[in-house]
C-alpha cells in the first residue's frame, strides 16, 4: 500500500513539473526568469503537500510555553532606553506586508491606499511614523513594502508622492504561484499571462513567502551590507504596529552568543480573538499553533481563554542574518495552509500557503513578548474603521493613541450590518463620525443613517426592519438605548 502511494506521489509530482515547464515555455525574458524562481518555491511546497499525512501536531505533545519564553512587555520596558537610541534605530528596517486588496471593504486596488483618518491612507500613516523617527533621532530607518502582483503597480505609482519625505522606500514582490485544480492537482492556467481566463489562475502564497522572496530579490543582502540587523514586520492594516524602541533595544543589546533571532508580539485573548494563532511549546521549541492545525475534537479547547491565554498579533522582529542563513540552508520550516477556493466559473481549486509566524520554530532563542492590546489595532472591516476614525483616538505623527478622555482603556465592541460593508456606502451613512468616548457596545443593522454630532454612550442597538429606514437626528445623544423598526427609542 505504502509503495503504491509513493508511486502515485511521484507520478503527480512529475506531472506537475511537466506542466510548470509548459507554462514557462509560454513566455521569455525577465518574466520567465522571475516565474522560474517562483516555481522552484512552488515545487518545494507542492512536494511537501504531497508528503503530509494527517494533522501537523499531535495534541498530546502540546505543552504550555516555559515561563521565560513569553516575557511581559513591562519587564522589557522597565530596562529603560540607552542614550544612543539612534544606534539601535540604524540597525532596523521596517517591513510592511502590502499584498492585500481592499475587496473585503468594497474597494478596488491595494488595501493600503484606503483612507483611514483625515484623508490619510494606511501607507501615509506608515510613512509619517517612520519619517518622524528619522527626524527625531537623526536616523535612516528604511521602509520596505512586500507587494503582491495584485498591489505592486498601483503601489509604485503612489510612492512617487513620498520622494521628498525623509524615508527611503524599497519594494519587493511576493511570489506568484499557480492555483491547482482540486481533483487533478494540476495548474488551472494555460500560460503565464495574468489576463483573460488566466487571471484567476494565480495567487500570492501567504506572508510566509517573505523569507524566500526577500532573499531572492537581493534586497536582504543589500540591507545586511548597509549594517541593518533586524526587520520589524507587520500587516499594513494594523495601525497599532509602530516601531517600539524598548523591544528594539532588548534585541540589539543582547550578548552575541545569546542573540534572540525572532520575537513574536502576542497579546491577551478576548472573546473576539478566539480564532487567533497562539504560542505553544512543542518538541522543545516555541511554535505557533493556528486554528487550522487543530484537530476538530480540540477546537473548543483551542478557543478557550483559560488554556491558551494569548494570540499572535503578527508583529514580528526577525534577524536579517538569521533569515539569510536559514534561506541558504533551506531550513525554514512552515506548516502548509491548504486554502480551498471556488473560481468565478465554479471550478474548485486549492491554494498552498504559509504564514510568516509559523517559521518561529526554525530560529534560535525565539521569544514571545506579551504586549499591550494597543499594539493590535487591525482595520479589517468598516466596524474597525469607525473606531479609528472616531474621537476614541488621537493622531500624532502617523500614530494613533487612545484618547486620555476615555475612562476605560478597552475598545468598544462595534458591529455594523451589511448596509455598511463597503467603505463608500459606510461614509454616506455618517454625516459626521459620532462621539464614542463613552461607548461600550454598538450594534447597527439595516438601513440606518446618522446625522451630525450624534453621541453614543453605554450600549446602543439600532435595528431597522426590512423596508424601514432609521435616521438618527443630528445632535442626538443615545445612552443605553435600543432603537428599532419605526424609530421607537427604548431604554436598554
From TrEMBL:
Record-listed E.C. numbers: 2.7.7.9
GO molecular function, one term: UTP:glucose-1-phosphate uridylyltransferase activity
GO biological process terms, semicolon-separated: glycogen biosynthetic process; UDP-alpha-D-glucose metabolic process
Alphabetically ordered keywords of this record: Nucleotidyltransferase, Transferase
Pfam families referenced in this protein's UniProt entry, alphabetically: UDPGP (PF01704)
Pathway(s) per entry: Glycan biosynthesis; glycogen biosynthesis
Residues that, per the record, bind substrate: 207
Superkingdom of origin: Eukaryota
Matches recorded under Gene3D superfamilies: Hexapeptide repeat proteins (2.160.10.10), Spore Coat Polysaccharide Biosynthesis Protein SpsA, Chain A (3.90.550.10)
Catalysed reaction equations from the record: alpha-D-glucose 1-phosphate + UTP + H(+) = UDP-alpha-D-glucose + diphosphate
Residues annotated for UTP binding in this entry: 111, 174, 206, 237, 380
Role noted for this protein: UTP--glucose-1-phosphate uridylyltransferase catalyzing the conversion of glucose-1-phosphate into UDP-glucose, a crucial precursor for the production of glycogen.
Subunit structure: Homooctamer.
UniProt record similarity statement: Belongs to the UDPGP type 1 family.
Descriptive protein name: UTP--glucose-1-phosphate uridylyltransferase
Source organism of this protein record: Amphiprion percula (Orange clownfish)
Record lineage: Eukaryota, Metazoa, Chordata, Craniata, Vertebrata
Amino acid at each position: 500500500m505504502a509503495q503504491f502511494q509513493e508511486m502515485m506521489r511521484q507520478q503527480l509530482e512529475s506531472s506537475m513539473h511537466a506542466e510548470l515547464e509548459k507554462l514557462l515555455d509560454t513566455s521569455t525574458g525577465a518574466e520567465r526568469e522571475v516565474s522560474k524562481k517562483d516555481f522552484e518555491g512552488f515545487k518545494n511546497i507542492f512536494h511537501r503537500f504531497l508528503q503530509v499525512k494527517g494533522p501537523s501536531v499531535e495534541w498530546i505533545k502540546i505543552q504550555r510555553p516555559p515561563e521565560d519564553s513569553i516575557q511581559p512587555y513591562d519587564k522589557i520596558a522597565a530596562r529603560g532606553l540607552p542614550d544612543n537610541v539612534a544606534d539601535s534605530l540604524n540597525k532596523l528596517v521596517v517591513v510592511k506586508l502590502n499584498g492585500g486588496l481592499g475587496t473585503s471593504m468594497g474597494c478596488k486596488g491595494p488595501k493600503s491606499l484606503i483612507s483611514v483618518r483625515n484623508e490619510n491612507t494606511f501607507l501615509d500613516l506608515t510613512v509619517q511614523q517612520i519619517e518622524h523617527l528619522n527626524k527625531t533621532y537623526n536616523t535612516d530607518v528604511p521602509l520596505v513594502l512586500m507587494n503582491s502582483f495584485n498591489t505592486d503597480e498601483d503601489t509604485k505609482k503612489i510612492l512617487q508622492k513620498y520622494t521628498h519625505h525623509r524615508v527611503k522606500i524599497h519594494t519587493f514582490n511576493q511570489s506568484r504561484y499557480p492555483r491547482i485544480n482540486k481533483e487533478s492537482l494540476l495548474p488551472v492556467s494555460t500560460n503565464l499571462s495574468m489576463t483573460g481566463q488566466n487571471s484567476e489562475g494565480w495567487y500570492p502564497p501567504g506572508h510566509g513567502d517573505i523569507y524566500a522572496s526577500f532573499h531572492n530579490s537581493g534586497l536582504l543582502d543589500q540591507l545586511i551590507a548597509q549594517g541593518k540587523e533586524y526587520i520589524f514586520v507587520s500587516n499594513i492594516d494594523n495601525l497599532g504596529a509602530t516601531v517600539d524602541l524598548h523591544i528594539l533595544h532588548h534585541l540589539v543589546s543582547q550578548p552575541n552568543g545569546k542573540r534572540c533571532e525572532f520575537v513574536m508580539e502576542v497579546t491577551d485573548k478576548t472573546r473576539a480573538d478566539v480564532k487567533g494563532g497562539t504560542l505553544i511549546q512543542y518538541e522543545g521549541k516555541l511554535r505557533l499553533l493556528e486554528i487550522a492545525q487543530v484537530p476538530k475534537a480540540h477546537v473548543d479547547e483551542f478557543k478557550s481563554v483559560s488554556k491558551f491565554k494569548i494570540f499572535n498579533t503578527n508583529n514580528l522582529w526577525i534577524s536579517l542574518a538569521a533569515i539569510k542563513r536559514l534561506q541558504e540552508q533551506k531550513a525554514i520550516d512552515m506548516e502548509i495552509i491548504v486554502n480551498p477556493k471556488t473560481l468565478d466559473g465554479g471550478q474548485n481549486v486549492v491554494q498552498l500557503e504559509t504564514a510568516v509566524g509559523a517559521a518561529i520554530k526554525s530560529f534560535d532563542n525565539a521569544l514571545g513578548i506579551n504586549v499591550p492590546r494597543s499594539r493590535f489595532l487591525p482595520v479589517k472591516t468598516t466596524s474597525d474603521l469607525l473606531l479609528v476614525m472616531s474621537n476614541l483616538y488621537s493622531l500624532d505623527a502617523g500614530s494613533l493613541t487612545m484618547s486620555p478622555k476615555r475612562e476605560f482603556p478597552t475598545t468598544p465592541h462595534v458591529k455594523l450590518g451589511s448596509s455598511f460593508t463597503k467603505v463608500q456606502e459606510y461614509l454616506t451613512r455618517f454625516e459626521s463620525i459620532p462621539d464614542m468616548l463613552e461607548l461600550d457596545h454598538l450594534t447597527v443593522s439595516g438601513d440606518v443613517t446618522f446625522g451630525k454630532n450624534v453621541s453614543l454612550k453605554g450600549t446602543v442597538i439600532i435595528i431597522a426592519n426590512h423596508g424601514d429606514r432609521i435616521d438618527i437626528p443630528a445632535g442626538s445623544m443615545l445612552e443605553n438605548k435600543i432603537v428599532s423598526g419605526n424609530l421607537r427609542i427604548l431604554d436598554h
